[in-house]
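NAD(P)/FAD-dependent oxidoreductase structure dump, as promised
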Amino acid sequence: MQSCDVLVIGGGAAGLMCAITAGQRGLRAVVIEHANRVGKKILMSGGGRCNFTNTGASPAQYLSANRHFCKSALARYTPAHFIELVDRHGIAWHEKELGQLFCDESSKQIVKMLLDECEAAGVRIHTQCSIERVAHGDSGQFHLHTTRGAFSAPALVVASGGLSIPSMGASGFGFELARQFGHSVLPTRAGLVPLTLSGKHQERLEDLSGVAFPVEARCGKAAFHNHLLITHRGISGPAILQISSYWQPGDDLRLDLLPGQDALESLHRWQAQRPAAELKTVLGDVLPKRFAQRLCEVWLPNRPMKQYNEPQLRELAAQLEAWPLVASGTEGYRTAEVTLGGVDTDELSSSTMQSRRVPGLYFIGEVVDVTGWLGGYNFQWAWASAHAAGSAVLQE
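structure tokens r here:
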């Protein structure tokens, strides 16, 4: 039996950061990772450049059954703290858009930085180490029986992630462990994921695969202005990935095809300036031509601009500003960037991430019912929740 102060299950962003934070306090931290290397999702993120945080991160960009839960951790470990760490390691970075920060070179630099910090803090990491059983003894010790031997510690941190991208080794292990210790797990589903179309909805768009353009996607009170990408199976792109976290089958999904414009005002202008031009032609100047043509074949009556009367122009404007799109589902966990739902935050301390049911047990990162928007917010939650737990373990 190998003993230590803190056992961390999961060698992803949250697990490594938690181990570093605990190790810097002089605690003996051990990370258990079942894959052959740590930080796999870090390596693939941001197209290999790792969108490691967002300068605008605030509780407003997170979904949770308890929207207040994330406030404490996010306030105490901010994007500025992580940027300072990145700068200290000499990693060059840039802001892409909307506060999204990426490495100039490679996401490998973030993993190396975390591993270097682990080494400096005396953290031990065991990869290719699968957990067979977790027990909690009367003495308060947690016992992990693994394929690499047995480990024990008075503190156990679960940072095993969610169900997203099973090809990277994702599993429901953290949720099962939470239930084992009497925790409630809120229903999970894929988030930040492409939407699928079926039947006539797919048939009308599938040959436009690869066409992309800016839209404002709306579902309920949520709205995102960014690009849409038509795929063979449905729709993707940042605007759709964002809205997917708010959409569920049966929900009304609308797209503003002329975001930032007053559609009726534009139609009036086109009618005055180009009365003989057909609708598909003028729309083809502001939308991809193939999409504008399909729009006028299926959804909008196509005729020369001078032939529309005022009520018809108003109807066209209403369609362009709230074009209905009937999605049938999502691509699921296979391509989802995050998992919505997870360990119920009502049973965790928001300041320490410790279980209210089992002393010494902590849940951090994606396994918790806190999910960020696309754009570095989920990494910031990983860093912040990990720092909260790593700062709190074994505090008297």
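The chain has a mean pLDDT of 96.
lmk if u need the other ones
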